[in-house]
Amino acid sequence: MSNLGQFDSDFYQSNYTVDNQEQTCNDSNACGNLYGSRKQQASEQPQPAFVPAEMLASSGYSGQFFQPASNQDYYSPSSYIDSFEEEPPLLEELGINFDHIWQKTLTVLNPMKPADGSIMNETDLTGPILFCMALGATLLLAGKVQFGYVYGMSAIGCLGIHALLNLMSSSGVSYGCVASVLGYCLLPMVILSSCAIFFSLQGTFGTVSALVIIGWCSLSASKIFTSALAMEGQQLLIAYPCALLYGLFALVTVF
Protein backbone atom coordinates (compact mmCIF):
# COMPACT_ATOMS: atom_id res chain seq x y z
CA MET A 1 0.00 0.00 0.00
CA SER A 2 2.89 2.34 0.60
CA ASN A 3 4.01 1.78 -2.92
CA LEU A 4 0.51 2.59 -4.20
CA GLY A 5 0.39 5.79 -2.21
CA GLN A 6 3.76 6.77 -3.51
CA PHE A 7 2.58 6.00 -7.05
CA ASP A 8 -0.45 8.24 -6.57
CA SER A 9 1.60 11.03 -5.28
CA ASP A 10 3.99 10.65 -8.16
CA PHE A 11 1.15 10.34 -10.70
CA TYR A 12 -0.71 13.43 -9.45
CA GLN A 13 2.43 15.40 -8.79
CA SER A 14 2.02 19.08 -9.66
CA ASN A 15 3.47 22.42 -8.82
CA TYR A 16 0.09 23.71 -7.75
CA THR A 17 -0.20 23.95 -3.99
CA VAL A 18 -2.71 25.17 -1.47
CA ASP A 19 -0.83 28.41 -1.10
CA ASN A 20 -1.17 29.09 -4.83
CA GLN A 21 -4.89 28.43 -4.61
CA GLU A 22 -5.25 30.92 -1.79
CA GLN A 23 -3.26 33.48 -3.76
CA THR A 24 -5.51 32.93 -6.80
CA CYS A 25 -8.58 33.40 -4.67
CA ASN A 26 -7.16 36.60 -3.27
CA ASP A 27 -6.39 37.84 -6.78
CA SER A 28 -9.90 37.01 -7.97
CA ASN A 29 -11.39 38.79 -4.98
CA ALA A 30 -9.25 41.81 -5.71
CA CYS A 31 -10.39 41.79 -9.38
CA GLY A 32 -13.99 41.48 -8.26
CA ASN A 33 -13.61 44.36 -5.86
CA LEU A 34 -11.97 46.45 -8.61
CA TYR A 35 -14.82 45.67 -11.06
CA GLY A 36 -17.39 46.42 -8.40
CA SER A 37 -15.77 49.75 -7.55
CA ARG A 38 -15.70 50.74 -11.24
CA LYS A 39 -19.32 49.76 -11.67
CA GLN A 40 -20.25 51.76 -8.58
CA GLN A 41 -18.35 54.80 -9.89
CA ALA A 42 -20.10 54.50 -13.24
CA SER A 43 -23.46 54.30 -11.56
CA GLU A 44 -22.66 57.27 -9.34
CA GLN A 45 -21.86 59.48 -12.38
CA PRO A 46 -24.86 61.66 -13.33
CA GLN A 47 -26.54 60.71 -16.62
CA PRO A 48 -26.83 63.46 -19.25
CA ALA A 49 -30.36 64.76 -19.22
CA PHE A 50 -32.29 66.11 -22.27
CA VAL A 51 -31.80 69.83 -22.48
CA PRO A 52 -34.35 71.78 -24.54
CA ALA A 53 -33.16 73.96 -27.37
CA GLU A 54 -34.42 77.11 -25.60
CA MET A 55 -32.14 76.51 -22.61
CA LEU A 56 -29.16 75.93 -24.88
CA ALA A 57 -29.92 79.08 -26.79
CA SER A 58 -30.19 81.06 -23.55
CA SER A 59 -26.88 79.67 -22.34
CA GLY A 60 -25.11 81.00 -25.42
CA TYR A 61 -24.95 77.76 -27.45
CA SER A 62 -24.36 78.71 -31.05
CA GLY A 63 -24.29 75.27 -32.65
CA GLN A 64 -26.66 73.77 -35.21
CA PHE A 65 -29.69 71.82 -34.01
CA PHE A 66 -29.97 69.79 -37.24
CA GLN A 67 -33.08 71.65 -38.33
CA PRO A 68 -33.29 71.74 -42.17
CA ALA A 69 -33.83 75.14 -43.64
CA SER A 70 -37.14 75.38 -45.48
CA ASN A 71 -37.02 76.53 -49.10
CA GLN A 72 -40.26 78.21 -50.01
CA ASP A 73 -39.50 78.12 -53.75
CA TYR A 74 -38.98 74.36 -53.67
CA TYR A 75 -42.32 73.58 -52.08
CA SER A 76 -44.33 76.31 -53.75
CA PRO A 77 -46.83 75.16 -56.41
CA SER A 78 -45.77 77.99 -58.70
CA SER A 79 -42.61 76.10 -59.68
CA TYR A 80 -44.71 73.16 -60.91
CA ILE A 81 -47.04 75.49 -62.78
CA ASP A 82 -44.10 77.17 -64.50
CA SER A 83 -42.66 73.81 -65.55
CA PHE A 84 -45.99 72.78 -67.12
CA GLU A 85 -46.34 76.10 -68.90
CA GLU A 86 -42.89 75.77 -70.45
CA GLU A 87 -43.72 72.39 -72.03
CA PRO A 88 -44.73 72.48 -75.72
CA PRO A 89 -48.28 71.51 -76.69
CA LEU A 90 -49.07 67.86 -77.31
CA LEU A 91 -49.87 68.38 -81.01
CA GLU A 92 -46.53 70.09 -81.51
CA GLU A 93 -44.72 67.17 -79.88
CA LEU A 94 -46.55 64.78 -82.20
CA GLY A 95 -45.56 66.89 -85.22
CA ILE A 96 -49.12 67.99 -86.05
CA ASN A 97 -49.36 71.60 -87.14
CA PHE A 98 -52.78 72.56 -88.48
CA ASP A 99 -51.45 75.80 -89.94
CA HIS A 100 -48.92 73.96 -92.09
CA ILE A 101 -51.53 71.36 -93.06
CA TRP A 102 -53.87 74.11 -94.24
CA GLN A 103 -51.09 75.85 -96.19
CA LYS A 104 -50.09 72.62 -97.92
CA THR A 105 -53.71 71.89 -98.76
CA LEU A 106 -54.14 75.33 -100.33
CA THR A 107 -50.92 74.84 -102.29
CA VAL A 108 -52.26 71.59 -103.74
CA LEU A 109 -55.69 73.04 -104.53
CA ASN A 110 -54.07 75.97 -106.37
CA PRO A 111 -51.41 74.61 -108.72
CA MET A 112 -50.43 78.14 -109.76
CA LYS A 113 -49.61 79.20 -106.22
CA PRO A 114 -45.86 79.16 -105.44
CA ALA A 115 -44.91 76.58 -102.85
CA ASP A 116 -42.99 77.34 -99.68
CA GLY A 117 -40.01 75.01 -99.71
CA SER A 118 -39.36 75.22 -95.96
CA ILE A 119 -42.88 73.98 -95.16
CA MET A 120 -43.05 71.40 -97.93
CA ASN A 121 -39.77 69.83 -96.83
CA GLU A 122 -41.30 68.74 -93.50
CA THR A 123 -42.18 65.13 -92.80
CA ASP A 124 -45.89 65.57 -92.11
CA LEU A 125 -47.95 62.41 -92.57
CA THR A 126 -51.15 63.57 -90.90
CA GLY A 127 -52.69 65.01 -94.05
CA PRO A 128 -51.62 62.13 -96.35
CA ILE A 129 -53.10 59.52 -94.02
CA LEU A 130 -56.37 61.44 -93.84
CA PHE A 131 -56.54 61.80 -97.63
CA CYS A 132 -55.78 58.11 -98.19
CA MET A 133 -58.53 57.15 -95.78
CA ALA A 134 -60.88 59.63 -97.46
CA LEU A 135 -60.11 58.12 -100.88
CA GLY A 136 -60.79 54.61 -99.61
CA ALA A 137 -64.00 55.74 -97.90
CA THR A 138 -65.36 57.48 -101.02
CA LEU A 139 -64.54 54.43 -103.13
CA LEU A 140 -66.37 52.31 -100.57
CA LEU A 141 -69.42 54.56 -100.84
CA ALA A 142 -69.24 54.12 -104.61
CA GLY A 143 -69.41 50.35 -104.14
CA LYS A 144 -65.68 49.59 -104.51
CA VAL A 145 -63.71 48.06 -101.65
CA GLN A 146 -60.23 49.16 -102.70
CA PHE A 147 -58.43 49.97 -99.44
CA GLY A 148 -55.69 47.44 -100.16
CA TYR A 149 -55.02 48.87 -103.62
CA VAL A 150 -54.89 52.42 -102.26
CA TYR A 151 -52.39 51.62 -99.52
CA GLY A 152 -50.31 49.27 -101.68
CA MET A 153 -49.98 51.64 -104.62
CA SER A 154 -49.20 54.50 -102.25
CA ALA A 155 -46.32 52.62 -100.59
CA ILE A 156 -44.83 51.29 -103.83
CA GLY A 157 -45.25 54.63 -105.61
CA CYS A 158 -43.50 56.48 -102.78
CA LEU A 159 -40.58 54.06 -102.98
CA GLY A 160 -40.23 54.59 -106.73
CA ILE A 161 -40.46 58.39 -106.59
CA HIS A 162 -38.06 58.44 -103.64
CA ALA A 163 -35.43 56.49 -105.58
CA LEU A 164 -35.93 58.68 -108.66
CA LEU A 165 -35.62 61.96 -106.77
CA ASN A 166 -32.46 60.82 -104.99
CA LEU A 167 -30.92 60.12 -108.40
CA MET A 168 -32.00 63.47 -109.82
CA SER A 169 -31.33 65.71 -106.80
CA SER A 170 -27.88 66.50 -105.45
CA SER A 171 -29.12 67.22 -101.91
CA GLY A 172 -31.26 64.10 -101.57
CA VAL A 173 -34.68 63.70 -100.00
CA SER A 174 -36.13 61.57 -97.23
CA TYR A 175 -38.83 58.95 -97.72
CA GLY A 176 -41.13 60.76 -95.29
CA CYS A 177 -40.96 63.97 -97.31
CA VAL A 178 -41.82 62.12 -100.53
CA ALA A 179 -44.75 60.35 -98.85
CA SER A 180 -45.98 63.64 -97.41
CA VAL A 181 -45.97 65.48 -100.74
CA LEU A 182 -47.52 62.65 -102.73
CA GLY A 183 -50.18 62.16 -100.05
CA TYR A 184 -51.19 65.81 -100.03
CA CYS A 185 -51.39 65.87 -103.81
CA LEU A 186 -53.86 62.98 -103.62
CA LEU A 187 -56.57 65.44 -102.63
CA PRO A 188 -57.85 66.10 -106.21
CA MET A 189 -58.22 62.33 -106.61
CA VAL A 190 -60.48 62.34 -103.54
CA ILE A 191 -62.66 64.91 -105.33
CA LEU A 192 -62.88 62.61 -108.38
CA SER A 193 -63.83 59.61 -106.23
CA SER A 194 -66.48 61.72 -104.51
CA CYS A 195 -68.02 62.45 -107.89
CA ALA A 196 -68.12 58.70 -108.59
CA ILE A 197 -70.59 58.32 -105.70
CA PHE A 198 -73.30 60.32 -107.50
CA PHE A 199 -72.77 59.35 -111.16
CA SER A 200 -70.73 56.92 -113.24
CA LEU A 201 -67.38 58.01 -114.64
CA GLN A 202 -67.24 55.33 -117.34
CA GLY A 203 -67.76 57.60 -120.29
CA THR A 204 -66.39 60.63 -122.07
CA PHE A 205 -67.02 62.94 -119.16
CA GLY A 206 -65.39 60.54 -116.74
CA THR A 207 -62.34 60.07 -118.98
CA VAL A 208 -61.83 63.81 -119.41
CA SER A 209 -62.31 64.38 -115.70
CA ALA A 210 -59.79 61.68 -114.86
CA LEU A 211 -57.20 63.22 -117.23
CA VAL A 212 -57.72 66.66 -115.70
CA ILE A 213 -57.35 65.28 -112.17
CA ILE A 214 -54.19 63.36 -113.14
CA GLY A 215 -52.65 66.54 -114.59
CA TRP A 216 -53.72 68.50 -111.51
CA CYS A 217 -52.12 66.03 -109.07
CA SER A 218 -48.90 65.61 -111.03
CA LEU A 219 -48.49 69.36 -111.58
CA SER A 220 -48.93 70.10 -107.87
CA ALA A 221 -46.53 67.34 -106.82
CA SER A 222 -43.83 68.35 -109.30
CA LYS A 223 -44.16 72.00 -108.26
CA ILE A 224 -43.67 71.13 -104.60
CA PHE A 225 -40.73 68.83 -105.28
CA THR A 226 -39.07 71.46 -107.46
CA SER A 227 -39.45 74.12 -104.77
CA ALA A 228 -38.38 71.91 -101.86
CA LEU A 229 -35.35 70.33 -103.56
CA ALA A 230 -34.24 73.38 -105.59
CA MET A 231 -34.60 71.48 -108.89
CA GLU A 232 -35.34 74.36 -111.23
CA GLY A 233 -35.97 73.39 -114.85
CA GLN A 234 -36.79 69.76 -114.02
CA GLN A 235 -40.49 70.04 -113.24
CA LEU A 236 -41.62 68.16 -116.34
CA LEU A 237 -39.19 65.32 -115.61
CA ILE A 238 -40.68 64.98 -112.13
CA ALA A 239 -44.28 65.41 -113.33
CA TYR A 240 -44.11 62.44 -115.71
CA PRO A 241 -43.56 59.64 -113.10
CA CYS A 242 -46.02 61.38 -110.78
CA ALA A 243 -48.63 61.30 -113.57
CA LEU A 244 -48.06 57.57 -113.98
CA LEU A 245 -48.64 57.02 -110.27
CA TYR A 246 -51.80 59.10 -110.10
CA GLY A 247 -53.01 57.44 -113.30
CA LEU A 248 -53.21 54.16 -111.35
CA PHE A 249 -55.43 55.81 -108.75
CA ALA A 250 -57.61 57.21 -111.53
CA LEU A 251 -58.03 53.76 -113.06
CA VAL A 252 -59.15 52.37 -109.69
CA THR A 253 -61.55 55.29 -109.26
CA VAL A 254 -63.11 55.19 -112.74
CA PHE A 255 -63.28 51.45 -113.31
UniProtKB/TrEMBL annotation:
Membrane topology: Multi-pass membrane protein
Stretches assigned to the Yip1 domain: 110-251
One GO process term, biological-process aspect: vesicle fusion with Golgi apparatus
Subcellular locations according to the entry: Golgi apparatus membrane; Membrane
Record's keyword terms, sorted: Membrane, Transmembrane, Transmembrane helix
GO cellular component, one term: trans-Golgi network
Positions of transmembrane segments: 125-143, 149-168, 175-199, 205-225, 237-254
Superkingdom of origin organism: Eukaryota
InterPro entries according to UniProt: Yip1/4-like, Yip1_dom
Recorded family membership: Belongs to the YIP1 family.
Designated name of the protein: Protein YIPF
Organism in which the protein naturally occurs: Bison bison bison (North American plains bison)
